[in-house]
Amino acid sequence: MESAIHARGLRKAFGRARVLHGVDLTVPTGTLLALLGPNGSGKTTTVRILTTLLRADGGTATVGGYDVAREGDRVRRVIGLTAQQATVDDLLTGRENLELFAGLYHLGRREARRRAQELLERFDLTTAADRRAGAYSGGMRRRLDLAASMVGAPRILFLDEPTTGLDPRSRAELWAVIRELLASGTTILLTTQYLDEADQLADRIAVLDGGRVVADDAPAALKRQVGSERLVLRLAGDEDAARAAAVLAAQGEDARRSPGDDPSEVTLALHGPDHLRRVLDLLHRAGVAPERVELRAPTLDDVFFELTKAVAA
Fold it and tell me: Which residue range or ranges hold the ABC transporter domain (predicted)?
């Protein structure tokens, strides 16, 4: 089987609100596809359709070779799902949670205990196995939630924003677990708000905007679409950055405030040394002096903002 997940023309509306307008996705077996998009772009709706939790209004999809609309029971036997909100029971211990899920998969008591212990070791939870899950840290809860989704040894795993709200250390720990799952042959569809996460983990990235896939390629290929280099101008402050962006925009330059966290930066695509001289000359004549000028390789932030037109004002 070449494709573990294959969707064509998925459509979905809730009342008059049309969420998906014909989504096409293909995830080859044993790879990770990261699904990116602004809030409301249809990421979670797509995951819910592919995991049989929601029926599409149109289009077709197969997961593990089974039709999600007609063979839902078979689809559910080969998938695992970690949703945005953890599904573990805070009143149960980590071990009890996993044994509970094992029971839902109709494993016998002895096999449930064996499987729970195996997953506790795999997800580095043995020392906390007999503590109530309500006392776990955010990272531990997410690892337990991921372990629960693996009780049935699924071939295909759906991770819907699994690291949202985690601190950097916990995110890195979960990334290590995801890489291990990939190395073992698991196919993963990951939705995330973190562009660096997609860059680190994904074989391919699909970008959803307005209920449609607007790009689908390897991370490096998507970056090349934006251009070879970006010019980053660091100004003295927010007001100077706004002024610099306005001066350059008035002269036809595609200058924008940085999509990152620094409001004092302005970025634009660079087209050679002559272009650099023109930009600096325009700013000099306007009395705007950058504190720092640097060249930067395109990032997924650049790709995301270019494709979705979500440019910071």
Answer: 5-235
Backbone torsion region of residue 241, taken as left when φ is above 0, otherwise alpha when ψ lies between -120 and 50, otherwise beta: alpha
What is the C-alpha separation between 3 and 273, in angstroms, rounded? 45
Distance of CA 68 to the CA centre of its chain: 22
CB 130 within 8 A of CB 121: no
Arithmetic mean of pLDDT, 139-144: 90
Are residues 184 and 64 part of one domain?
yes
Per-residue confidence (pLDDT) for residue 303, from 0 to 100: 77
Q: What range does the domain containing 56 cover?
A: 3-222
Say if residue 224's pLDDT is above 80: no
| C-beta separation of 91 from 132 below 8 A | yes
The pLDDT value recorded for residue 226 is: 66
Half-sphere exposure of 312 (CA within 13 A, CB side): 19
The residue with tokens 């805070």 is 90
